[in-house]
Every structure is written in C-alpha cells, then in structure tokens.
Amino acid sequence: MDIEHVTASPARRTDPPAGPTETPRTVLWVSAHPEPESLTGNLRRHGLEVLRRRGHTVLESDLHALDWDPVVRAETLDTRPATRPLQITRQGRSAQLAGTQPPDVVAEQEKLRRADALVVQFPLWWYGMPAILKGWFDRVFVSGFAFGKDPATGRRLRFEQGPFRGTRALAAITLGDRPASIGPRGKSGELEELLFGLLHGTFAYTGMDALRPWALPSADFTDEGSWPDAAGSLAGRLERLFDEEPIPYREQFTGDYTEDWALREEIRPGETGLSVHLHR
Fold first, then answer.
1. C-alpha angle with apex 233: 228 to 237, nearest 5 degrees?
2. Residue 15 zone, left/alpha/beta (φ > 0; ψ -120 to 50; rest)
3. Is 9 helix (H, G, I), strand (E, B) or coil?
4. What is the pTM of this model?
5. Of the candidates 201, 192, 173, 243, which has an alpha carbon nearest to the alpha carbon of residue 30?
6. Closest CA to 39 of 211, 175, 237, 182
7. Are 17 and 235 in contact (CB under 8 A)?
8. Taking 80 as the threshold, does the pLDDT of residue 129 lie above it?
9. What letter does residue 122 receive in the DSSP assignment?
10. pLDDT value at position 169?
11. Residue 240 contacts by C-beta under 8 Å, 6 or more apart in sequence?
12. pLDDT recorded at residue 182
C-alpha cells in the first residue's frame, strides 16, 4: 500500500484552502470518540473546517455528543409494539417501510440521503470500531434502507446495485500500532485488509465508493507539537475526497462470482484471501 495511506508525515500544513475550489457537495462526518479535546477531536474540527472552506455543506453526527444508543433492541428498532420472537432484519425492514423507526434513526438516515460523501472517524479499538459506532451502523443501515431487495422489481440492492451508489466513503482512524505494523507485512495486518469488514462489507456492500482509509499510527505517542502534521495529512485527503480513485473492489453481478458468491475458479486461479476481491 502507498505509505501515504498509513502515515501522517507530509510537510507541516495547517491552514485549509482560503475559499471554494470545487463544486460544492454535502459531506456527512460521523465521529466516535468520547473526549472532545483529544487528538481525534482536534482532527475532527480541523477536517470540518477544511471541508467548509472548500465550499461544502457539512452534516455532523458526533455520536457521543448525541448520546447515541448503540444497542439493537425492539424499542430501538421500531416504535410499534414488539413482536416475538424479534427477527432483527425482518423487523428493521418492516419499520423502515412503515416509517415507524425511532426518531434518532430517522434523523441519521436523512443525513445519509443528503450526503454526497461520508467520513467516518474513530479510534481503532481491538482492531475494530468502538461499540457506539458499530451500533450506529447496526441501527441505521437496516434492510430497506441500506440493502435488501427492491420491493417492486426484486433487484438485489448491494454492491454495484446498492442504494448508495455514487456516495464516497472515507474512514479516518487513529491507532496505537506503528506504521510498519499495518503495512503489507505488518503483524497487525495490512490496513485495507484489517478494515475489510467496513470498507468492503459495509461501504462497498451498500454501493458506496470506498476510498483508501486515512490512518494515523502511533497516535498514543503523538504529542501536541505533531498534531499540525497529522492535520495537514488528513486535510490533503479531504481535498481529494471527490477526485481520488476508490478501492477497485469487484462487482457482484457482472460475472466474476458464482451463484454461491464465490470467485470463479478461472479468475486468479490458485489464489485465496481478501485480495482476490480486488481488480488488479
């Protein structure tokens, strides 16, 4: 992987561009850190400023500030009386189609509908998202909204047919590992493979153009004097949010996969692992 995607070592640069330089878009920024004055919090504020100075409309979902409830229960899925046994996918779809989701879910879905791009910012905890962010996806990305079948045509709504086709998605993370640890031969796993569940299984699955993640390694050892470098690195990615090429994941319905959703034997024969789902 290009080292740009796993380190924050560009020339020091803190000031966003002076004014709009591209077509104004709408960006939803979802953040998941409990401390507003943390490195993550400061990067968030700087990132929002970068986007606004470029003329974009920014929608915000600071999950801790929202006191977001991440737990899927009958009452956080549907405002109607619960049925038993609770079938999460079916009940979530039913609530979506009936318009009976809780108000907090409705508000987040409306932001997603408006967004041309999604930035998801979080610290990597135990090689995954914090629970509050995982619960945001669990409750908001329900069947009938983020995936499922078109009720009129029966068309499967996923990957190249997903409902968020054309929406760009960037994960911006801080993590404790060293840069080499998330590199191609790193002990923790190459970054895009480490985040495969989010990048491929959520972003690409719902039709989004998944961008290569931005990551700041060794974040626990980054002092305030180094924060401008990190902010400058993130700003560079945000400036290219609508220009850079997405991760070239394979489409599902154009012939590369069998009916059992396994890669056809004649495509990259003898190879296994997550990388086979990428076009070379």
1. 140
2. beta
3. coil
4. 0.89
5. 173
6. 175
7. no
8. yes
9. E
10. 98
11. none
12. 85
What are the beta bridge partners of residue 173? 122, 215
In this structure, which amino acid lies at residue 257? Answer: Y
Pairwise CA distance, residues 60 & 115, whole Å = 11
Residue range 217-222: average pLDDT? 78
Amino acid letter at 272? T
Q: Alpha carbon 191 to chain centroid distance?
A: 14
Residue 1 is predicted with a pLDDT of 30
- DSSP bridge pairs for 61: 30
3-class DSSP state for residue 117? strand
Q: Show the tokens assigned to 140.
A: 């908001």
DSSP letters spanning 175-223: -SS-GGGGSTT-TT--HHHHTHHHIIIIIITTT-EEPPPEEETTGGG--
Q: Which amino acid is at 2?
A: D
Q: What is the mean pLDDT of residues 163-179?
A: 93
Compute the half-sphere exposure of residue 272: CA atoms within 13 Å on the CB side of its CA.
Answer: 0
Contact in structure between 146 and 115 (CB atoms under 8 Å): no
pLDDT average, residue stretch 114-141? 97
SS3 110: helix
